[in-house]
Amino acid sequence: MKRETWTSKVGFIFAAAGSAVGLANIWRFPYLVGSNGGGAFIVVYLLCLLLIGFPVFVSEALIGRAVQRNPAGAFRMLGGTRYWGWAGILTIITGFIVSAFYSSVAAWILGYLVESVLGNIHHFASSEEAALHYASLLAHPYWNLSYHFLFLAICTSILYFGVQHGIERGNKFMVPLLYIVLIILVIQGLSMPKGWEGITFLFSVDWKQITPFVVLTALGQAFFTLSLGQGTMVTYGSYLRTDDNMLSSCFPVAVMDTVVSFFAAIAVFSIVFSAGMEPNAGPSLLFRTLPVVFSSISAGYLIAIFFFLLVFLAAATSQISAMEPTIAYLIDEHGWKRHVATLTCGCGSFLLGIPCALSTNLLKDYLFFNKNILEIFDFTATALLIPLGGFFAIILTGWVWGIGHAIANLRHGAEETLDRYPIIAVYFRVCFRYISPILIIFVFLNAIGLFG
Ligand code: PHE
Predict the structure, then answer these.
(1) Pocket of ligand 1 (CB under 6 A)
(2) What confidence score (pLDDT) does residue 34 get?
């Protein structure tokens, strides 16, 4: 059977942007900015995107496009040994682990979307009340399990219809919708009294807050937000045609991802400031601070619905992309039919996600290194396996496949751009070979606690 491709590179752009834009943009980015010095963090973050995020993203998509295979096949073919095939399999396993715990967290978002429609989260008098409501929902095993199931069922049914009719079509619908909702929220936020203080906060630069640890956090964020290190971009790249322009396919994705992070931060902070709350609440911003804000503003009911719809769309398009490498692997390497591979992956993610969904209730006393099961999954994947996967990809591109071959391959479809701006090839050459691998090593060493 012929392997599927996107209908055009626009299909890739939407799918990859859908993958990139996720909880990391709308939930994590605002609270990182809020607790790490506002504008100064943003400057560091943009540098990280330039030096590590974007080059690794292009290298992964390039690997996929070069051999039109899932990560295991692609790594094996370009690396020339079965060990490289195993490295590819490791990235697929990483994606699968992410799909399990990501879904168990996205379940809270879906649950809160339903809560907001039911009118349950816009009548809190204090953040303690909001926190209590949040804790009582998370303490419920069935609440967690049913939304985990429902969220996966939605994503699996989109994947079921294949690359063009499922992933591409789903993203072409959900990504623009996400932008519309986001823009409505930004306008709403800025038109609220004192809303502009959010912007002032975002763009006030305080360099004193930038410690080495903050720099490494920004590096990790750049990595996770572009869905790197876990087979996703290799797989999505493998559905490009070999003569699709790599640069004009990847650049818009990085821009769209960054724009969403900024808009999300603007929306969140303008709303938070206009309600007179603090911006540095950390991860609880979403479930404790915002519901209090929704309770104190007019139209809070509607804004809450829009907000959780936004986060839901972002999470669903990312979830889909975390599952696709496993599905592509089963199809390419083992000859499975798409629908069988999809259902297997969906069931597998559900089962593996069960302990995560129960980690805030039935299994909450099972702690390892002071972390609950969900946090262990999260830490293993995002702090250890994802940097490792990205490291494999960039070493494969810059050193094993060979920088000459990689740049020559990058030229396919992008000859004109590269001839006009030779500096772009120099940039990729230096990043692929030196800058990105070295920075990833630092991210990794930080993750294992070497920098305290
Ligand atoms: N990029 C997604 C986000 O920003 C996370 C993600 C990671 C999605 C890996 C898929 C795969 O939330």
Answers:
(1) 19-20, 22-25, 98, 224-225, 227, 230, 232, 318, 321-322
(2) 84
